[in-house]
Give the backbone structure.
Amino acid sequence: MELKPIKTKKIYEEIISQIKNLIHDGTLKPGDKLMSEREIAEQLHVGRPAVREALRALEALGIVEIRQGGGTFVKEISNQSLAEMLALSVMTHKYTSSELMEFRKILEVEAAGLAALRRSEEDLAKMKAVLKKMAEDLSAEDLGEQADWQFHNLVAEAAHNSLLLRFMDSIADTRSKLLQSSREELYQIPGMPQLLLKDHQAIFEAISKGSEQEARQAMLKHVARVEKSIFERSQ
């Protein structure tokens, strides 16, 4: 196993990146034992605290297992740890709002299509309740923004794909923080909250009747509207 000297201020993140790369390219396989903290620190020319922090982060993500007195071992990559690795990428890199919206489009359009095919009566009941809350919020002159997030999460749940749901859950907080200001501005546009409610109702109707194509089209139309509005507000 060969590691490269660190040349960045974010030392522990670079250590994580190098170990992940060794796993991805097959140099390190499930069950393999990593070098000791001291050996990694010496090879990377960094301090042991940075190595320790990186290994703890990797353990928290489910990528490695630290055995007391036994060393650190590569674990089998589960749906959960894979999703959390992707979430870590979102948290540690600076992506533009445009990139996040494009990524959201890929995930949510597919989630809507799968939801139309797989949704249960319980899924539909939950979505219907959130749409009712959204409409009530608008009537009370509340923007209904929280219900908006909840609806999209319920669509992801209704897709019944554990990897998709795990990933969307993992990045939810980061996505919310990065797009929060843009979404707040979006909801301030006159008439926009009402349009978004209609979008959500159309998505629900397509999912409810089990039309995969209509669900995908309705979600695509909705995400495109949001993307266009946010882009125009940023000009």
Observations:
- The chain has a mean pLDDT of 84.
- The chain has two domains: 11-77, 81-234.
- The longest strand covers residues 64-67.
